[in-house]
């Protein structure tokens, strides 16, 4: 029985570990859902807010709550220091984003994501990117926080980069940059065609709630399965024990000697008292007609010893 308990304990520990993992994943999805709802509320709030001047929007490190706040800035693009951001998508299309530093009228420099360029089907990387407007421009766009990743993704290489991070790009540029960057909505004077602005994400909650319910249901199934397995194991063991006991009892009956003696009633002719044990064959003949005639003949001879005996 000790092995059975050990097996049940190991199985229970495994199921508890699996169940804990499933519940943790479900809670993680609920946390993602809360983040999505907070982001949606933040986007809606900033859409209804007034456009902020650059000096007010970028006077502190940019955080998640600052994202998608509209901002306006005036300055001059540094056209010779453009960066192509690879591995981007917009909707169901893949391509690149074009980032150009903008020196503001106040002397600060900020990165501006000028827009998305669709990747042609037969072209791995464009040979020429659209140049920014020359001279002083006014940009209206969204405040964006720095993207986080490994150094090889945030550090520019041959005018290309995978993530937009002003702290990592500043050494390559050779001048300080304000924290965060701007996703351009409009540029005045207008820039070249073919650049699509980066818009806020869709205001939906995504699949996080359904995923969380799935993980929680997996945990419940694991717990229910453990109970069923243990219950079935107990039931099968009880049935096996009852079957073994029944077979053992039948074996003892079949092993009994058919010649074992049995008790008979008192017999005045043979002098056996009641309850005397006789052989099985003898006891079976005790009440037969032949036995009764033999007993009567013996009795008559004993009463008249002079009478000749016949056979």
UniProtKB/TrEMBL annotation:
PROSITE patterns: SURF1. Residues 244-270, 288-297 have a biased composition (Basic and acidic residues). GO terms for cellular component: plasma membrane. The chain crosses the membrane at residues 211-230. Coiled coil: none annotated. The keyword Transmembrane helix applies. InterPro entries: Surf1/Shy1, Surf1/Surf4. Keywords: Cell membrane, Membrane, Transmembrane, Transmembrane helix. Residues 244-311 are annotated as: Disordered. It is a multi-pass membrane protein. It is found in: Cell membrane; Membrane. Belongs to the SURF1 family. This is SURF1-like protein. It comes from Propioniciclava coleopterorum. The lineage of its organism: Bacteria, Bacillati, Actinomycetota, Actinomycetes, Propionibacteriales.
